[in-house]
What does this fold into?
Amino acid sequence: MSELEAAQAALSAEHAAVYGYGVVGARLDGDRRAEAAAAHAAHRARRDALDRTVRDLGGTPAAAAAAYALPFPVVDADGAVRLAAELEDRVAGVYADLVRASGGAVRRDAAGALREAAVRAVRWRGSGVAFPGLAERS
It folds into this structure.
């Protein structure tokens, strides 16, 4: 995968995460809703940064879809928490790909985003994985 392809994939994942956190936030309240709002803002900032990265790499940034299919129905707070953890796992995976495909500042930013996603996933799930973002992928 080229650096540009990996950056585009990360941008697409961030678009999906921003959408997904809209669903998550709608099903939560109190501290968990505030946590979802903070994650939503973080993903918007990462999305905007990736938009610039894709342009800097000579590409045209992928546009967000009008809607995204959720991996499962989210009808309550428990489902929202599961979705948030899933979103972070997916984002971590594409950032791991971007770390492998890039160097310099892009690689540093991708590694930071991978770390942030892994930490958020642990907060949502209550447990972590040995190597976030590096699961075997088909």
Notes: The chain has a mean pLDDT of 94. The chain has one domain: 3-125. DSSP finds four helices and no strands in the chain.
